[in-house]
Write a structure and sequence with these properties.
The complex is a heterodimer of chains A (355) and B (759).
Chain A lengths: L13 E5 L2 E6 L3 H10 L2 E4 L3 E7 L3 H8 L12 E7 L5 E10 L2 E8 L2 H10 L7 E4 L4 E7 L3 H8 L2 H4 L6 E6 L2 E7 L7 E7 H12 L3 E3 L1 H10 L5 H4 L6 H4 L15 H10 L3 E7 L10 E4 L2 E12 L4 E9 L8 E4 L2 E6 L15
Helix pairs in contact in A: 1-7
Chain B lengths: L5 E10 L5 H10 L4 E3 L12 E3 L3 H5 L11 H17 L18 E6 L16 H10 L5 E4 L5 H14 L5 E8 L3 H9 L19 E2 L1 E9 H6 L6 E10 L12 H14 L8 E3 L6 H15 L8 E2 L2 H4 L6 H15 L1 E2 L22 E2 L4 E8 L3 E8 L15 E10 L2 E2 L1 H10 L18 H4 L4 H17 L5 H4 L3 E5 L5 H13 L6 H5 L5 H10 L5 E4 L5 H14 L5 E8 L26 E9 H6 L6 E10 L3 H7 L10 E4 L6 H12 L4 E4 L1 H4 L4 H17 L31 E8 L3 E9 L1
Parallel strand pairs in B: 3-7, 4-5, 4-6, 10-11, 10-14, 18-19, 18-20, 23-24, 23-25
Antiparallel strand pairs in B: 1-8, 1-9, 2-3, 6-8, 9-15, 12-13, 14-15, 16-17, 16-21, 16-22, 20-21, 22-26, 25-26
The chains are: A alpha+beta (355), B alpha/beta (759).
Chain lengths: 355, 759
């Protein structure tokens, strides 16, 4: 399904199917959109992210059970990223959970809304929990870039620009009630606005007066460069949370959550593989390309692209635990690569204060 | 509604930029700062060496011989206090020789202090001791409060002093702040990388702060009384505002929301708007986090006018005097109003941090100043803003309205249980666990990401707050939480963090335990509660030993009366590091050999306007019928001060007895003043938990009104006063209780009494 903003996008926009969503991959060129995101401010059509509301007297308890991080006291001015796991510890999705007055609002990763909704509905017992798909009446617009804070100031309110990370404010834009959050996916200053679909086009157009649009390709490249997990690329069948490198998106100190036993078992068992970044080989290796160290097969490529920031191949390899370290010389499909420590590109925002 | 005008009639100050107000002002206007390298070799371990130090001679030359042996905190405070009282014309201690002088019982002192400071022998003294010394030396027997909202305490004290005049409890209040330069604090700030290696340069280089020391006081009194006794009003304290960032232990909310909220509340309190403000005395520490945040406060509050409202930092002259800072800056603000001159920010470089604002660089500026806003921002996310104006003439005014307040939620965290159900069960079954630390196992009270960084005191206080909140059945939306007040009461703050920090300094001053340091300030726990529960209303911290909780309740009632909050959470917490003794439990009021047992506890209660409670169909435990506090004169006086309920006398008294010899006097006073009432205490249940014991007494009084139970004095066979029949010896009360009295005590300082009535 196309995003609600599709009618706003230029005719030559390149779309792609990601899960259940048809999303704008590129509006112009990847390189140009990437540079906007890394150097100025990009506006993002995040309409491919599903929005699911959890309410009811037992809603928070339910969310606490299905989310891998601690959301028991997630107040309506905070949001946090969390994994959603199945009983075997496999990643179902990676969500942004917004605390709300009457429960929580979950934002799925790109194209994963339907799968997430089905997963949640299947786990509602007889409790007083209502799961509502809000994707039909709300959509998400993102701002990302070292000067995205300036756009926030011009667009809504300068006070919101310096909100602490993962803070949420219910505010108004042009008399429309929106949920505004300081988020960030690429290491740059990042914000998200959850807006009623009937007002989305107007907000998108106004945003374009202060920033340039960037598509999913540029966004995901910039995410990879700072090792922000992208589940649809990194979650491979059978891989544990630890192998994926998403430990920080679970909290095993919680009493219980769906998938906890499997995660704890994997923690305690040790071993397995780990994910590490690499660069170096000419061309972009195909997924599954074998990775070798000193002639020994140690794993495979799970995701690789051409990084505009590095002007080189950048990929993630899932390899034997003791070789998942930075600075090693390995081969990918027989070609030499060097493993990296993240971030692979230092975001400009880290040296630019909000004023 | 126009409230009674409150004016400043006396100023006192001693700091690095002057030994009295005249010298201080001369140097401020001449741009002559007082920041110098510390010569004490002990400080040679630090790279940063500049500070705002007060020469010993400046202090001792102004003190009578008998005060020169006192600790430095007291000496600094006495110098500034005497100056303020002297300028106001209230010098004499003997009302008989000065008929114009108010009754000593109506002269109060409210002192702001950030640090726990050493006595003359170098040992920590109770937080309130300096206020006791000044009150004793100057004959101030009225309201006495020690406020410790870290670096906002001095300004906070001035605001609370105005409250005490508006409630009619005092005819004059000496309000101010004091803090000396302490090695440990210096090491803590050095550890946070917050010190500038040279003289600080607020609002331009912003490369760190300099610590300073000093004391400052303002004598506040109602305009009508000041004029009647021929005093000269120097300025009006038109209003003040408090707020909580609910963001971080040490860093300010980067949006400036918390600071802006304090300013807006202060202007509303004063009946003014931002358009009325001519000059802003900034907090201006010189740290990047503060200076950046403050620029945002200016833009948020003043909008397009921000660049046309001069703001400067006199910390560039005196350093950061912590608990004194707000008072030092309030004194400068009064002088700025008097002289029509804005003091500059000195050391200002050409490249300001915010080019759109006017920081009065390097040279004082003569200008029209009718209204000054003076701001302070503190660790724990506490913000205060004062609005001072040029004095106006006498005018009609309204009294502070009387608004009924009720207690709607109880949250005890004690050795006998957590939550009111467990404690009620313990009371009913006669369980006693004095000295046993509370257990917080079995449920969570805060997000784990916050909880794991909290010390034990904060965890207890958060748990108590959460339990009280849940017990009250309050479900407030985010916007309403922005207006919920929080008053924290503690005698000594976190023993764990203070001990851990001191140990780290003793081992290596350059490797302080910075997490502990951020929790050494007494208001840290109140800040943690605000952060966890998301409360951003007015907030303060009271440190008057065992009397802290009832004074905190007073503050909550004042917030409700003034319309500054409809709901206020009062939380009291203290802890001991001593293990629970194996000996017999203490027997309050008994001629027993068992000694008082120190304990750890946190007790919270929700105070709500009766109107708000009724509006949400809440169920109250009790109405707060009256409160009273007296200083240094025993329990009888405080009982006499208490308003009498028209419905009849109290049938139950939860006393402050802990099992010590002071119990006899209290019991005798209660039996004399409240004949027929049954007396008991909480110390047998939990031990002496200082501020939390006072709150526990309030909680047990409220519980008794609803459940008709009270803790039995198990083991009481030979009372120090009266007969056994005057005491609670069985949990089930023999006759219905409709009115219950709770007592609090900081021995040798302040006693409190609170009368609760069944709803």
């Amino acid at each position: 399904m196309a995003t609600v903003l599709a009618t706003e996008h230029p005719e030559d926009t390149a779309y792609g199917q990601v899960g259940d969503a048809t999303v704008p991959l590129r509006f112009s060129s990847l390189a140009e959109e990437y540079r906007v995101l890394r150097n100025r401010a990009a506006v993002l059509d995040l309409g491919g992210h599903g929005l699911i509301q959890i309410t009811g007297a037992d809603g928070v308890d339910f969310a606490q059970r299905v989310l891998a991080r601690d959301v028991e006291y997630l107040t309506s001015d905070r949001c946090m990223m969390s994994l959603v796991l199945d009983e075997s510890g496999q990643v179902v999705d990676q969500v942004l959970a917004f605390g709300r007055e009457d429960g929580l609002l979950l934002e799925s990763s790109c194209g994963a809304g339907t799968r997430l909704l089905e997963h949640l509905l299947a786990r509602v017992a007889d409790d007083d929990v209502q799961i509502t798909d809000r994707s039909g009446d709300l959509t998400v617009i993102g701002l990302e870039g070292p000067y995205a804070w300036g756009v926030v100031g011009r667009l809504i309110d300068a006070e919101l620009a310096s909100l602490p990370f993962e803070s949420v404010v219910d505010t108004a834009w042009d008399d429309v009630e929106i949920v505004f959050a300081r988020t960030g996916l690429t290491g740059e200053y990042g914000y998200q606005m959850i807006v009623p679909i009937e007002s989305a086009a107007a907000l998108w157009r106004r945003s374009l007066e202060h920033a340039q649009a960037a598509g999913v390709e540029a966004l995901e490249l910039a995410m990879l460069e700072v090792r922000q997990p992208i589940p649809r690329h990194e979650v491979t069948p059978g891989a544990s949370v630890i192998e994926i490198g998403a430990n920080w998106l679970v909290d095993i100190t919680k009493d219980d959550f769906v998938g906890k036993d499997a995660v704890v078992e994997a923690f305690e068992a040790g071993g397995g593989r780990r994910t590490v970044g690499f660069t170096g080989c000419p061309g972009v290796p195909a997924l599954g390309t074998r990775v070798q160290a000193a002639g020994q097969d140690i794993g495979e490529v799970v995701y690789a692209v051409h990084s505009v920031g590095l002007d080189a191949t950048l990929g993630l390899a899932r390899v034997t635990e003791d070789l998942a370290a930075a600075g090693l010389e390995l081969t990918v499909g027989g070609l030499p690569v060097t493993t990296l420590t993240s971030p692979y590109v230092v975001p400009k925002s880290w040296s630019i204060p909000i004023i | 509604m126009a409230l009674r005008p409150v004016v400043v009639t006396g100023l006192g100050i001693i700091c690095a930029a002057g030994r009295d107000p005249a010298e201080f002002w001369r140097r401020l206007t001449a741009g002559q700062g007082g920041l110098t390298p510390i010569e004490d070799e002990a400080f040679a371990v630090f790279t940063a060496r500049y500070a705002g130090q007060v020469p010993d001679a400046w202090i001792d030359d102004q003190l009578p011989q008998e005060d020169r042996g006192r600790d430095r905190t007291a000496r600094l405070a006495l110098v500034a206090a005497r100056q303020a009282v002297g300028q106001a014309g209230l010098v004499s201690r003997d009302p008989g020789t000065d008929p114009g002088r108010p009754d000593p019982g109506r002269l109060g002192i409210i002192l702001g202090k950030c640090q726990a400071t050493p006595d003359a022998a170098g040992r920590y003294q109770p937080m309130h001791r300096t206020a006791d010394v000044v009150a004793d030396r100057l004959g101030l027997l009225g309201p006495r409060i020690l406020v410790s909202t870290a670096c906002a305490a001095g300004g906070n004290a001035v605001g609370l002093a105005r409250d005490k005049i508006l409630t009619g409890e005092a005819d004059a209040v000496l309000a101010g702040g004091v803090d000396p330069l302490l090695f440990g604090t210096y090491a803590g700030f050095a550890g946070l990388q917050a010190l500038s290696t040279g003289p600080c340069r607020p609002y331009s280089s912003s490369d760190g702060l300099n610590l300073g020391e000093g004391a400052a006081f303002l004598l506040l009194e109602p305009l009508d009384l000041a004029l009647a006794r021929g005093a000269t009003p120097l300025a009006e304290v038109a209003g003040y505002g408090l707020s909580a960032d609910a963001y971080h232990a040490t860093a300010p909310d980067p949006t400036g929301r918390g600071g802006a909220s304090a300013v807006r509340r202060a202007l509303a309190d004063a009946g003014l708007t931002s358009a009325d403000v001519h000059y802003v005395s900034g907090h201006g520490t010189g740290t990047p986090a503060n200076d950046t945040m403050e620029a945002k406060v200016m833009r948020l509050v003043f909008g397009e006018r921000a660049g046309r409202v001069p703001t400067s930092s006199i910390k560039s002259f005196v350093g950061h005097t912590l608990g004194a800072a707000g008072a030092v800056e309030a004194v400068a603000s009064v002088l700025a109003l008097q002289h029509g001159v804005a003091p500059p920010t000195i050391g200002f470089e050409d490249e300001p941090a915010a080019a759109d604002l006017d920081f009065v660089p390097n040279a004082a500026r003569p200008m029209t100043i009718d209204t000054v806003v003076s701001n302070n921002y503190a660790f724990g996310g506490n913000n205060v803003s004062l609005v001072l104006t040029r004095p106006r003439g006498p005018r009609p005014y309204d009294g502070l309205p009387h608004r009924a307040a009720v207690i709607t939620g109880l949250g005890p965290v004690t050795g006998v249980g957590a939550g009111i159900a467990e404690v009620a069960e313990a009371v009913a079954t006669g369980l006693q666990e004095p000295g046993r630390p509370p257990s917080l196992d079995g449920r969570t009270y805060a997000p784990r990401s916050l909880w794991r960084h909290m010390n034990h005191l904060s965890r207890m206080a958060i748990a108590a707050s959460r339990l009280a909140w849940e017990d009250a059945g309050l479900k407030l939306p985010r916007k309403a939480l922005d207006e919920v007040g929080l008053v924290f009461a503690t005698a000594a703050g976190s023993a764990e963090s203070t001990g851990g920090f001191d140990e780290s300094i003793a081992l290596n001053p350059n490797k302080p335990a910075v997490l502990s340091f951020s929790n050494v300030v007494l208001n840290a726990t109140g800040g943690a509660v605000c952060q966890t529960l998301g409360l951003r209303g007015p907030t303060t911290t009271i440190c008057n030993g065992g009397a802290s909780a009832s004074i905190a309740l007073d503050c909550a009632l004042e917030m409700i009366r003034a319309g500054k909050a409809e709901v206020v959470l009062v939380v009291a917490a203290d802890e001991t590091t001593a293990p629970a003794p194996a000996s017999d439990p203490p027997v309050p009021y008994g001629e027993s050999t068992a000694a008082p047992v120190p304990g750890s506890a946190a007790v919270a209660f929700v105070v709500e306007s009766a109107e708000h409670c009724a509006g949400r169909a809440g169920r109250a435990y009790a109405t707060v019928t009256g409160t009273a506090h007296t200083t240094g004169t025993g329990t009888e006086a405080v009982l006499r001060e208490l308003p009498v309920s028209g419905a009849g006398p109290a049938e139950l008294v939860i006393g402050a007895g802990t099992g010590g010899p002071e119990d006899g006097q209290e019991a005798a006073a209660v039996l004399g003043c409240a004949p027929g009432a049954l007396l008991t205490a909480s110390a047998g249940l939990t031990g002496d938990c200082q501020a939390a014991t006072g709150a526990m007494n309030l909680l047990l009084a409220a519980l008794a009104l609803r459940e008709q139970i009270a803790p039995a004095l198990t083991g009481l066979t030979a009372p120090r006063a009266g007969t056994l029949g005057s005491y609670v010896t069985k949990p089930d009360l023999p006759a219905p209780v409709r009115r219950a009295l709770a007592l609090t005590a900081a021995h040798g300082s302040v006693r409190g009494a609170v009368l609760l009535e069944a709803v």
